[in-house]
Design brief:
There is one protein chain. This protein is α+β, with helices and mostly antiparallel strands. Helix content is 57%, strand content 11%. Helix 1 (4-14) packs across helix 2 (24-117) and helix 5 packs across helix 6 (195-214).
Length: 270
Amino acid sequence: MLSRRGLALAVILATPLGACGVNEDLYKAKVAELDKTKADLDRTQADADAAKKKAAAQKKLIDDQNEALKLRLQAVGQDMSSLNADLDSAKKRMEELKRAQEAAEKRAAQYNDMIAKFKSMVEAGKLEVEIRDGLMLVKLPDNILFDPGRTDLKPAGQEAIKQVAQILSGIEGRKFQVAGHTDNIPIKSAKYKSNWELSTQRAVEVVRYMSTAAGKGMDKRLSAAGYADTLPVDPANTDAARRKNRRIEIVVVPNMDDLPKIEGLNAPKK
């Protein structure tokens, strides 16, 4: 490979010359021209290398930005998934609240309807209609229904139960539990060993009479329970409190549709 000066000399030798031989000025000019050309080539190479490095740096910057954007999009996607899950949960909760509100409004409507139908009996002091512990019930004092320590209905009690049964039979889609309650004084009777037996037998007697007075099919909607003195409406140990506690309550049994849905427990098993 020729050196720079050798190349210049070859160029000069290839150039037609006069008899005097090599023109030194021409030689120097060709060498300077070659030096300039090489310098230009070196600058061009340097510029190319710098451009290559800059392009590589730009590429790395773009790659880093793309990776950061990808991670950000993934985070946004996760946030969106979480937000959608929260929205679905909130939607289900709103639907549950709506159903609960509708059920409450339905119970309130039934309560008001019962109040209207029982108005004359309430005003006569024969019974009370109330909601206690989330249950709708009709409460009858025992002195209207029974003599002390007895379980056979008095004539006035029979008439009251007959009226109640006919009204309740008109409430569609509901079952009723007749609950007997006594005061806290233990009964002293050979027939009944405790207030449990007395309260239960009184409830059974009311159920029997209601099913007869209300007509066919009412017996399938009735049940009886005795609570003795375990659920007093007035805990005071006074005669007035004991009079309140001796009672028959007819409870409107809640429907399963009134209860909140429990995931995984309401679907039938396959």
